[in-house]
Amino acid sequence: MMNRNLLFVIYSADVVDPYGISILSAVARNAGWNVDLAEFNIRTIDWVFQTFRPDLVAYSVMSSYVDDYLKINTYLKRKYTFVSVMGGAHPTYFPEVIEVEGIDYICRGEGDGAFKEFLTEFAEGRNVDNVANFWSKKTRNTMRSLTSDLDSLPMPDRGLIFDRIPIIGQSPYKTFMPSRGCPYACTYCHNAGLVRELRGKGPLVRTCSVARLIAEIRWVQERYPLRFIKFMDDLFAVNTSWLQEFADAYAREIGVPFTCMQRLESITHDRLPLLRRAGCVSVSVSLDSVVARIRNEVLGRRMQLTNDEIRQRFLMIKAHGINILSNVILGVPTSSTQDAIDTIKFYIESRVDFAQATILVPYPRTPIWDYCQKEGYLSRQDKASNYGLFQAMSTLTCFTQKEKEVQWNMMVFFPAMGHWPKLQKCFLWMAMHMKPNSLFAMFYTFLKAYLYNRYIFPAKGCVGSSVPIFLKTLKLEVRRMMGKEEQDITI
């Protein structure tokens, strides 16, 4: 078998490293492939292709960026000869992207085992059209069973990411994800549809062993700056017995402060001491809406908790010395500006450290999309693609232009009103009477960075090393919020 070259191309490096690519890179190296990664830049991408000469180019794509990746692939296909593969969330939920000219294959669902088989067959020159999880212009293959034992996967190739993207590699913040799958089915998420498609293919929620996680973290800790960890799981440590083992091992062998995501229902008196003992300094717990009807019926969180019980959960978290980031969704059909104001008051009473808001983006094939379509709330823009970003203004027709502008301003000033409650009336006046603008977006980004560093990622000695990350984030965030592309890709 001759050596083959695989190149991962990413549109724009964010501050969070692409964990999925690091797993697939390890799979590819174990299969005998040469692997490299490039952040797309119109000025340097030609040098990468001319020196590395990839046989296969792979993209991991979220729906918000699919148009950008399609432009990139078209640009590269016109200049070079290679086979393209698109994986990630977008082709999983919207497999018709395979019909786009220049996209040779897509991989749906988890690609670990599927990618290994695809690469082996491809390198041997055999037909890859019938590999499970993969679609081509000719074939539509079903998904294989999920990988039940996450310990069986190769250690992720974090070096590929950290060495090729120095802003991530030299950052003191790193991300890890010891589990896969989410047991919930919120209406704005594709998880409900995915659960139906994967029924009978193994347990949806799986967690690696504590020993495996510790080994992965230690590998990074011995080679790269590591002063703070964000666990990216949809719900960290679902199993309390796993959490107990983790708390002891992590505190003893790693000792790095971390943040994680939790559901309010999972906040209990027996779990919080374990999280704190391990080194948890903050948690992200979404509320979505202070209005129970919107939270449970429209957004589908199905929380069997009253607002008083939710407030007590927040106060319980604070009593254990853990800071809180909580998110609500604005621009939800049947919601009002008063709902947002009531939520701010609720967060202040609950001692939430970072009150964050986003704008609802109803993605096609989600229950909230179906609801909006049934009620006639979708605009022409929504029906065309609606692969937007939740920092941008709502496109739903159930709101007037003025209401959409107020929603955007409320999103911008939401953290400020939570952090400086005495200035709430001032921020509310600006939200209600002023036009959205880039200065507001910059204010939001600066305050967001401050709140993250003060409460959510409060690692000592990280302020100076965080400056490059902040500057990159500032540029990206402001452009996203103003509805602009991050870079112009001329085809």
What is the CATH architecture assignment of the largest domain?
A: Alpha-Beta Horseshoe
Mean pLDDT across all amino acids: 91
Low-confidence segments, ≥5 residues, pLDDT <50? none
Q: What's the CATH C level of the largest domain?
A: Alpha Beta
The structural domain count equals: 2
Helix count equals: 20
Widest beta sheet: strand line-up:
2-1-3-4-5-6
The structural class is alpha/beta
Major beta sheet summary: 6 strands, mixed
Please tell me how large the radius of gyration is.
23 Å
What coarse outline follows from CA principal-axis ratios? globular
Determine the CATH topology of the largest domain: pyruvate-formate lyase- activating enzyme
Number of strands: 14
CATH evolutionary superfamily of the largest domain:
tm_1862 like domain
Separation of the first and last Cα atoms: 36 Å
Query: How much of the residues is beta strand, in percent?
Result: 5-15%
Measured as a percent range, the helix fraction is 40-55%
